[in-house]
Write a structure and sequence with these properties.
Layout lengths: L35 H23 L5 H31 L11
Helix pairs in contact: 1-2
Length: about 100
């Protein structure tokens, strides 16, 4: 689905126009992936909650700034993956596609 590695910071968001295996068109309509922001937001909230519980339980409730900086650092480091997975999940939920291994060319 994506043309480059998520670790190529300049091009982590470049997508193929069509699937190289089955030919599925990824760009369903202009602005389709705008809704993927909500999936990314859900991921960020989940990271915030897990990080908060982890810090509270294992580091004896540190200062507020530790919570903020730790969560921010984790979200920034995982951003390319969050971006990609949110698009993939959004495409599967609202794009009307289903994985079928028999559809390969």
């Amino acid at each position: 689905m994506f043309a480059t590695s998520p670790y190529q910071i300049r091009n982590f968001d470049h997508m193929h126009a069509n699937c190289p295996v089955c030919g599925l068109k990824f760009d369903i309509e202009p602005g389709f992936y705008t809704g993927a922001m909500y999936v990314s937001y859900a991921f960020s909230v989940a990271i915030f909650l897990v990080t908060g519980f982890f810090l509270f339980l294992f580091f004896d409730d540190p200062d507020l700034m530790v919570y903020v900086l730790t969560t921010f650092l984790i979200v920034v480091l995982l951003f390319p993956h969050l971006y990609r997975y949110s698009r993939v999940i959004y495409l599967h939920l609202f794009g009307g596609i289903r994985y079928n291994p028999d559809d390969r060319k």
